[in-house]
Amino acid sequence: MMPTITTKMRAAADNLWNQSFNHPFIKHLADGTLPMDTFRYYLKQDNYYLNNFSILHQKIANHVNDPSTKQFLIAGAKGLNDGEAEIRDDFFSKLAITANEMQTTPIAPNAYSYVAHMYHELNEGTVASACTALLPCYWLYNEIGKQLIANGSPVELYQQFIETYDSPEFTDATNQMINIVDALGEQAEADERRQMITAFVRSSYYELNFWEMAYVHEEWNN
Ligand SMILES: Cc1ncc(C[n+]2csc(CCO)c2C)c(N)n1
What we know:
This protein has helices at about 5-10, 15-20, 25-30, 35-60, 65-95, 100-105, 110-125, 125-150, 155-165, 170-185, 190-215. By secondary structure, the chain is mainly α. The radius of gyration is 17 Å and the shape is globular.
């Protein structure tokens, strides 16, 4: 049997993924030494990412024909608004991040570029490459969740963060997204398949640099 397109994508991005697994942000999240101020920075940038991620699910769903894929994307958009947003609201209140602080925090370069990349795939790519650009978000966090849950983190907030991405519901959503991309890959011609793999590698690059961005508190004028 031919390897699935997601197996090829995962292999193409393996270096980037290993660098994410070993990034100091992740290492220190696990051992509890990540400065809370760094996690706070991450949460504020991630809020911008999550808001757009939800909008992208909805917009991509409008272009999808397959009913079950459409439904998954619409539910994903809504799930982000409710489920994940609820956990984030809890983090925001624990860390006293106000709506005003969120609004006045400039979007950092990597968060901006990652979101711009996903919109680019939606507007200039195809439904398949747009869906693919969303996949590392699910899949990488699920793998990180599974790795970190073994030892957890001594910091309660970080432990809660880890648990979000190891949950059976989240693992199920990740597997559904992998299956959606595999099905789209099977319908695609060689050119589009290449475009999908490129979209996956780019998202994986921005995922890696999301940790780095937070770790160094990236600014436009560093
Ligand atoms: C930069 C960044 N990448 C991935 C995630 C994880 N994530 C965000 S939305 C979603 C889908 C289901 O809730 C997942 C897995 C994140 N938070 N921030």
